[in-house]
Amino acid sequence: MFRYDWSLFNTKLGLIFTISSLVVFNLMDRFDFQMMAAGISALLAWLTIILVPNRKRSQHIFGLAGYLVAGLALTWLAGMVEPYYWLKLASMGLVTFAGYLMLLQGPHPYMVSWCLVYWYLLVPLFLGDNNVGPVMFAHGVGVCLVISLNVIKPLWSSATVASASKIEPEAEAAQGQNQPAVRQVVGFASVVSLSMVTGLAAGIRFLTADPTLIANATLNMISPSLEQTWHAAVERIILGFIGIIGGFYFGWFFNDPWVGQMVIAVCSFLTLGVIYINFGLVIGIFFFLISYAWGGMQSDLAHRIANEKLFAEFAGVAIAVIAIALLTRLQRMTFQEECTHDSCEHSD
Fold first, then answer.
1. What angle separates helix 11-28 from helix 257-273, to the nearest 10 degrees?
2. Which of 172, 192, 276, 310 lies at 20 to 30 Å from 104 by C-alpha?
3. Taking the chain, what is the end-to-end CA distance rounded to the nearest angstrom?
4. How many helices (H) and strands (E) does the chain have?
5. Which pLDDT belongs to residue 70?
């Protein structure tokens, strides 16, 4: 934990994201809230390229097209089930389970499906009075922007090539050596699905500002390995809390418009600059950015939102660690039973 290779810091990606963030945040002052939906959707679409860069352009475009079409369908589905509590939870579980099954298809399809699960989790925040049309339009605008840039000439191609050469070959070699079994993937997908449903149900029950916060924390740090999940949990709690508290009080005391623009620029630059170094750093910096806006409100509501965020981080991390611990124990018990059964057959 907390061992970072700072040579992987990506200045070009940071600058690209800084420009994009400044444009989006300034447009939000002139247009409605759906501009945020477009920005979130575009960022998730971008991740399907940034986090799996060593792919042909045609593969990236095909993945973006799939993300566009499936995202529109999921947005419509989210609007349909939003008024119904149990349908909402069931659909979240099914979408998560189906998305995580894509682990069997390789890193790129899984990354696309993971972004779709994340998008489906966030869609209710943009729906307002259950008006699905503007959210679908915002999703289309965000993804089509990324597709257009990728068709012309991907701005991130030169920015990712150096980091990709250090990161992805090792990951793909490991995948080739340890191809996950279908049973392992199904078990992991089931656990993540149940964890997401639990987190969303808890958020709806206990949170007032944003009911997705607990499930959001779980989704962002849960992994098949208990050790990886535990390490991610510790880093997320420490770095996330520093980001939330630091950003909130910085916004509380320094809320001039020019300071806000500076915070957006610096945090955007650092968020994608460190994305190849450690995802916990990304989370901490991003939390500083969003918490700055809460602090700038200087109200009791702002304190409640920030406190709910802190509570949600603890709860989401706890759900993830407990779920993976139980999965690991169950897999170990199953393995021991199979070994015992095989040895008995051998002795006969």
1. 140
2. 276
3. 48
4. 13, 0
5. 95
